[in-house]
Amino acid sequence: MKVPPGLVAAYGLGLAPPLLEALWPGLELVRGAHAPILWLVALFALSFPRARADAEPALRSAGLALLWLAPPLGLALGLDLARGMPAPRATALTLGLGTLCLGWSALAAQAARAEATRARYRDAWLVAVPGLAALALALVFVPRAAGAPPGARLFSASPLVLAQRTALPGGAEFRTAFEFVLAFLLLLLATLFTLRTPRGARP
Amino acid sequence: MSLLCALALLALGDGNRLWWLEVEARGPLEEFTLDCGADGTTRVRGPFLAGERRLSVPVPLRVPLGIEGLSAAALPRAREAGVRVLGWSAEQPEAAFAREARTLLARGRPPVGAAPARAGRAEALLALGLLPLLVRLRRRAVWAGAVALLAGGFLLWRTTQARPRAVAVELLEADLGAGRALLVRGAYASLPLGRTRLEARPDGVALFFDVPSDGGGGRVQAPGVELHQLERAAPPELLVTGASESLEAVWVRTPRGEWSAHGPWRRGTPLPPAVPGGAAPPGWLTGALPPGVGILVGRKGADGWLRATGFELPTQESPNGY
After folding, report:
1. What pTM did the predictor assign?
2. What digits encode the pLDDT tens for the residues B41-58?
3. Distance, in angstroms, between A89 CA and closest chain B CA?
4. Which residues contact A126 (CB under 8 A, 6 or more apart)?
5. Would you tell me how many other CB atoms lie within 10 Å of the CB of residue B74?
6. Contact A71 B148 (CB under 8 A)
7. How many domains does chain A have?
8. Which residue has the higher pLDDT, B60 or B238?
9. Over 60: is that where the pLDDT of A56 sits?
10. Upper half-sphere CA count for residue B255 (Cβ side, 13 Å)
11. For an interface test with B, which of A30, A68, A69 has the most B Cβ atoms less than 10 Å from its Cβ?
12. Is A11 on the interface with B (CB under 8 A)?
């Protein structure tokens, strides 16, 4: 198995906040939850459009990549539990964000197998993952009346925004079921768009 | 009426959780424990050699009526057969302290908190060290997955044991007019044990004392509890013309209730002039203070504070202030 550079980046960057906090006792980087930060980095790095396809089946290579993240995830999840996050919520977030990560990662691996799907995935990924997150970020920073922009929850369809929102302090009160449904719907749309059979190729 | 007052006192409680007890230990003994029931325990570490030894030991008993009710309070029980509880010590530092420093004791205590739990260095470095190992194992995907899963499970278990880190705070409470001061040390869950007065929040929780047999270097442990240790201290010299110690930031309240920020005040130098629009002092230092007197509040370090009543800014009658 070839180690994707994105996996090493996700491992290192996801581990960075708890590692730096452990090495410098005065440093407090995370006020909210640690595990969603790891998922945020992993979602971006593992869903990144790939130039070459893996030899292994897409779902298997995505699953193995997630297994690799078990050490930093264990550390981050343990910290969240030690800081008082209820275990059922921590489990639900891990399952939800982990499944999203698995889905996007498998789609990226599958799309890399052909030139046409690779191009379509690149477009879908650009809009759905960093594009939507960048738009949400821009709207937050545009000077406007206090409070979130109208329809702010819709931006949670981007897995990056969803992970960021679940990492916020007080996330225990945050109802995420609707946001998760949106995020999975967007993943489904991206899958249909990427893997659809082009008209000219139909028998 | 007196019954109502007694009931009110019982409900409020005196607050001190540090009383001294005379015990006789018959060695050889490694250590012994004094049991105060729901109020906690005192573990006295020896070793105690063969023979009898009398010693004064602090216990965390809750005595709602304070020193007046101590003689009526049930004596703690020794768990070991070789230890005999003789009675309350004749000298209870709390008694004179409560009498002398009544007004200072009535002031609010500094809030203490806890820094959130963080991963241990060893665990974080283990997670980092696993990355090159996993890269080396890349050709054996099943092995790499198994190692990662095992390590992840171990790190999850280890990190859930992490506890909030205690943040200690120190406040010197002074009454410059009366020439009295007391030092309040606050911490979360654990604190070095003093001699005079100990308070715990919430009230009525169990405290655990751990003291060596020579009486010094003891500690109080109480998970999830705010602890405040109070001791006598020398009042600071705070003249407008020069302070006996440096303060990183100073705020002054006039008897009319107007606050002003004065910035840092170096030792031996005059009080700096008021800084217009300076930051306000922390709310917990300025609440419930006596009206009509001058007050100085200062920061001594990251977690050290000073609050002195009776500090006066210079007037025509008293050009040096206090």
Report:
1. 0.56
2. 999 998 888 888 899 999
3. 15
4. none
5. 9
6. yes
7. 1
8. B60
9. yes
10. 10
11. A68
12. yes
CB B34 within 8 A of CB B77: yes
Residue B46 · residue B80 · CB < 8 Å? no
- Are B138 and A25 an interchain contact pair (Cβ–Cβ within 8 Å)? no
Domain that holds residue A35: 5-201
Mutate to test the interface with A, among B137, B150, B159 (most CBs of A within 10 A): B159
* In contact, B121 and B127? CB cutoff 8 Å: no
Amino acid A143: pLDDT = 53
Indicate the helix (H) or strand (E) that contains B4. Answer: helix B2-12
Is residue B157 within 8 Å of B117, Cβ to Cβ? no
Condensed to tens digits (0 to 9), the pLDDT of residues A92-116 reads 889 999 999 999 999 999 999 888 9
Q: Are B63 and B73 in contact (CB under 8 A)?
A: yes
Provide the token pair at B126: 């283990």
DSSP one-letter code for B301: S
Displacement of CA A59 from its chain's centroid (Å) = 16
Q: Does A98 touch chain B (CB under 8 A)?
A: no
What is the pLDDT confidence band of residue B314, given thresholds at 50, 70 and 90?
low
